[in-house]
């Protein structure tokens, strides 16, 4: 669901939040194609999958090092 964009390219929700901030100036105008491109980039889950894969490798490495240190300590 795409938010309703105002003439300056911002959604109504964002402009209401900025008005409540102290000493906040007005938001600079955005181009609609920049907004839609940024939203489409957030739908890409490739970096999330890569991050979890790398996290899994790091955890597996530490577990393997711990097991190896334990076995070496026991003289095996």
Features:
76 residues; mainly alpha
Molecular structure report:
Keywords: Membrane, Transmembrane, Transmembrane helix. With 76 residues, the protein is mostly helical. The chain has two domains: 44 residues, no CATH class; 32 residues. Helix content is 63%, strand content 0%. The longest helix has 28 residues. The radius of gyration is 24 Å and the shape is rod-shaped. The N and C termini lie far apart (60 Å). The mean pLDDT is 72.
Topology:
Layout (H helix, E strand, L loop, with lengths): L11 H9 L11 H11 L3 H28 L3
Helix run count: 3
Major β-sheet annotation: none
Based on DSSP secondary structure assignment, what is the total number of beta strands? 0
Radius of gyration: 24 Å
- Termini separation comes to 60 Å
DSSP strand content:
under 5%
């Amino acid at each position: 669901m795409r938010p309703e964009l105002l003439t300056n390219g911002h959604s109504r929700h964002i402009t209401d939040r900025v008005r409540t901030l102290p000493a906040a100036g007005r938001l600079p105008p955005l181009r609609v194609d920049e907004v839609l491109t940024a939203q489409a980039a957030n739908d890409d889950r490739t970096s999330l999958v890569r991050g979890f894969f790398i996290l899994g490798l790091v955890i597996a490495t530490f577990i393997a090092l711990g097991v190896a240190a334990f076995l070496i300590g026991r003289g095996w």
